[in-house]
Structure prediction request, 1021 residues.
Amino acid sequence: MLRRFVGKWRTSFHFRLAIATGFAVALIVSLYCVVQYARHASFAESAQKARAEKLATLLAESLAQPLFDFNTVAVASTVKAISSHVDVRSVRVLDTNGAVIVDTGVEAGTSEILLLTRRLIDFSEGPRPVRVGSIELAFSRKSLEEELYQGLIETLVGGLLVALGAVLAVLWAFRTITKPLGEITHGLDQLAAGVTEVVLPKVQWQDEFGRMAVAVSRFRDTVVERQRAEVLMRESEQRFRDFSASSADWFWELDEHLCFSYFSENFEATFDMPAERLLGRSRRLVAKQDTLNPPALWQAHLEVLERHQPFRSFEYRMRSVSGEILWLSFSGVPRFDAEGRFKGYRGVGQNITASKAAEEVVRKLSLAVEQSPSMVMITNALGEIEYVNEAFTRITGYTAEESIGQNPRFMKAGVTSSEVYAELWRFLAEGKTWRGEMTNRRKNGELYVEQGIFAPLRQPDGHVTHYLAISEDVTERKRVEVELASYRDSLENMVEARTAELAEAKEAAEAANQAKSAFVANMSHEIRTPLNAVLGLAKIIVRENHGRKSGATAQRILEAGEHLLRVINDILDFSKIEAGKLQLEARSFRLSASVSDAMGLVTERALAKGLGLRTDFAADLPQWVCGDRLRFEQILINLLSNAVKFTERGEVYLTVERDQSAVLVKVRDTGIGMTAEQIKRLFRPFEQADASTTRRFGGTGLGLVISRNLARQMGGDIVVDSVPGAGSVFSLRLPLETAEPETAAAAALAPTHESGAGRLAGLRVLAVEDLELNRIVLEDILANEGAYAVFAEHGEHAMTLVDQRGIDAFDVVLTDVQMPVMDGYELARRIRSLSPHIPIVGLTARAMREELDRCLAAGMSAQITKPIDEDELVSTILACSRDAQRLLAAEAAGEKAPRPAEAAESDVIDWNALAERYKGRTGFADRLLATFVRTHGETSATLGRALQTQDWAAISAIAHSLLSLAGSIEAPRVHDLSRQLETALMAASPDVPVLTDALIVALDALVAMLRVRQMAGAPSA
Prediction:
């Protein structure tokens, strides 16, 4: 039976259709029943659960009052009533501690339970609910299952009835359709089998099946002809594909609008881009967007296309997707339909980039060979000339026509040996390149020397087919070589003689330079040595005769000596700069402090002349910079001193601002000014603006020269802008990089005795000096500072004292370096051999870097240049003393050091910066602070009264005074507010009252801090 079913299934579409229809109807009805049952079940279960949840909520609300009242009877009664509900399986009531109050105790499996829910029971009494217990309910599935079973029966019965009706209706309809369709199918089967005489069913109806029978009849008549045409078409298409695939070219088509409509497959491989990017693009648009080819080229091509004429080898350039320039060649013919209407173009395209590149290479090589200054000759394998370039014809005199076809032997002059030719042909026969010279004869009979390279030319298979000769005429060079050879010997003799002369001149120059250095050093020593005594004695007279006429006279002597010392320093600096021996330091220093120091040195002179002195710091300047502070201040002092010197009335205005990564300092004055010619002479050594300037104002004329050289060695420069009678502006630009502040020890500002108050108290000093006047000066300084000094006249005398008393009898050694019998260098070496730690300070009149190096090499700890500055000497001794801690402790017993909190940076006063500024001069710093408190303790009240009366002139004077003083005592807050207030007053800014109030507050804070410090025990002036 199964076999019959399979056979029927395979042979009868009607049978398959009936079976499939029945199966489909059954499947659809089954799915419908399942869906309906699922929806019903889901709805019923959801409704049952909703009822259960609602019942649980109602039960929880009804039990709240009994549980709150602890009425277990009411609770049990309520639970019993609810348990009788058909859906309720079990009920359990618990108190707040979890103890069971009522439990129906009905056991049930998980499958019997529809929903197990728990409710917390809260009793609302007052604003906050009270938790009184909880309830657990289990609801049965029994009623739900009964309801679902009834619904399932109803759904199945309805589905079966619908399925039966649908199957019967579909089978009747299919029978009506498939009978004529089967007859037509039978006819098509015969036609497909090759039977052209197909018997089709008789047309009974003019319906779709009737028209289908007529169509099949017509199809029968044309099928054979179509099959024949398809065979021909396939053969034609295959032929085209074979041609296209085997060709490196591609095929294209244009439509009637001259837009690309087709590209063959190898187009994409050629251009590495999809053909769709060009399909639909007009040839006119391509021409319009082209920038690589001349417009005339496209104009001529478009005219051909517009006339519908065929064309060949239209070449142009285009840019590929990768940016490469390609050369393309197009050929095409027009297409027309049967009526003669133009339908477009069809043709072939070629990528001719490689051939164009090869042509260009050949063209360049041809030009290079043809225009080469060297002779180029190519022969075949038999040695017959096939090519010569223009240089060959020009040098030999033979034309190309006269040379081609001949053997190169026709130019032999008979001078070159046969061994050269034998070697040449042996190299060529072995496939090697030969280099050498030979002598040939020109057409006019002249001989010429030819130096060349002869090489075989190989084909890709390695076979030699030609020979290449590249040579040049070296006749003139050979002649020159002969002449040069004759000159060489004489030149060598001349060079030897000249070398000896230069060596002598070099030795003389070095000797002169050494003599100059020695002269400068000796001059420094010879002047500084007596000057040390003069200045030292003058200081003693000034100190001991203060207020007397002799004291005033000594003060003038001291000022003259200091002026002479400045002149000497200028000359030495200039000598160092000229010799290239000036060395710069790179250390961190506070920019505002350095500028304030320089301003402080010229303030007294400016005030004595009645000049205003103003400064202005830009807000974006760094606080700490890296550079040579000493040289920076030297430049500023020189510029400020000149401004004060050459200004009779008005003011000197210094501004500091940032210029990109550099610091720009401008010194502006209202002095005499200069002409352009005077400015040219300004930076020449020993010159000033004019000769009368030197007589009127004094000076060596070296200050600006030294300053500019220092600025340039520091990576900057000085420029001048001046108008006669209107003042001058000197601009100093230095690349001072921002730096981290150097940590200044808090003890650096620890108070010490002031000058003359025993800063070296108890220190035992061995002082060695050969000049009596200098010994007197040195003795006065040491005695005035409280030191115990023993003097020796020279090094041998000092060693005698050391031998007698022992090296431990002295705490420090001061020694002149140039002395008779035994100098200071030898003395230092001997003392250092006895004690490696005792401080040795050298005293020298040679202000040279080499002198410091020599002192340190001899074993000295430090060096001081004469004339001796008292503060410098004391600070150097203290810094070098091996017993410095003992000295500080001894002084601390008599003077209290500042508290560590005072040494920290503050916006009121920067103790670290103050310690750095007055390093080793703590007594002076204390006196300066005490003076500030004494003189400006009531300044804030004065400012307040001036603000009330709007006395802007008084406020300006106070701000200007505080600007300089606050910088001297490192009070940044007062300094900044004074500068801002002065600027605001000049600009008539409305911020003046606000800034004045802020300055009053800051000044009160500063004075209060300093007074508290004095009361805590810090010494005052």
Notes: The two ends are 137 Å apart (CA to CA). The chain is about 55% helix and 20% strand. Residues 691-698, 743-757, 882-905 have pLDDT under 50 and may be disordered. The longest helix spans residues 475-544.
